[in-house]
Amino acid sequence: MDDTLFNELLASTKEAKEILATKTTPSRTFYIDEPNVKEIRSKFSLNRNKFWKYFRCKK
């Protein structure tokens, strides 16, 4: 691995460690909405059991 890339990776891991320890804040934050499972099942015409089998979800 190139030294420059390795140093960037190392700096990123140190920054991640500081963020987890709440010593610093992340430069960006992403929010992901929960999917509407009922709407998804309806779109694909799946009942609960077929949906669970298809996506291997827990009941």
Structure description:
This protein is an all-alpha fold. It has one domain. Helix content is 56%, strand content 0%. It is built from three helices and no strands. The mean pLDDT is 90.
Could you give a short description of this structure?
The chain has 59 residues and is mainly alpha-helical. It contains 3 helices and no strands.
Helix count equals: 3
Q: Count of DSSP E strands?
A: 0
Q: Any idea what the radius of gyration is?
A: 20 Å
Q: Can you give the helix content as a percent range? A: 55-70%
Strand content: under 5%
Overall 3D form: elongated
Main pleated-sheet profile: none
N-to-C SSE string, H for helix and E for strand: HHH
Number of domains: 1
Average pLDDT, all residues:
90
| Span between termini | 45 Å
Quickly give the structural class. Answer: mainly alpha
Question: Which ranges are low-confidence, i.e. pLDDT below 50, for 5 or more consecutive residues?
Answer: none
